[in-house]
Amino acid sequence: MFGKKHNPDVVNQFDQMIIQGSSETEGQFLDSMNSIVKLVENEDSFSTNDKLKIYDLFSQLSNCSPSERTRYAKKVRKLLK
Fold first, then answer.
1. How far is CA 62 from CA 1, 5, 31, 35, 47, in A?
2. Are the C-beta atoms of 76 and 57 separated by less than 8 Å?
3. What is the pLDDT of residue 23?
4. Cα 17 to Cα 7, 32, 37, 48, 60, distances in angstroms
5. Rounded to the nearest 5 degrees, what angle is found at the Cα of 9, between the Cα atoms of 6 and 10?
6. pLDDT tens profile 31-62
């Protein structure tokens, strides 16, 4: 739907995860990301198609180097808004 708003808490928690991720180990970062994945999974405001796109970007985010995280994080954030 055009103009549909998603839960801002998901975006806020994602932003916190990215900020904290710069000082976390890879394992800690992945654990934090799993909590965001669960939020997206349980959020009804995302269509199935949106969720699939978000999960795909999460996969890329979890497999990239820390220096590339910002690039993927921007893409994820755009879909979460």
1. 28, 26, 10, 13, 22
2. yes
3. 85
4. 16, 6, 12, 23, 16
5. 65
6. 999 999 999 999 999 999 999 999 999 999 99
Scanning the structure block, which residue is given the tokens 């893409």?
75
Amino acid identity of 18?
I
Neighbours of 24 (CB within 10 A): 14
In angstroms, the CA 65 to CA 58 distance is 13
Q: Which residues contact 21 (CB under 8 A, 6 or more apart)?
A: 29, 32, 66, 69
State phi, psi for 59 to the nearest 5 degrees: -60, -45
**Residue 74: Cβ within 10 Å count:** 11
Instruction: Convert the pLDDT of each residue in 4-32 to its tens digit.
Output: 678 889 999 999 999 998 888 889 999 99
pTM, two decimals, is 0.85
Residues in the chain: 81
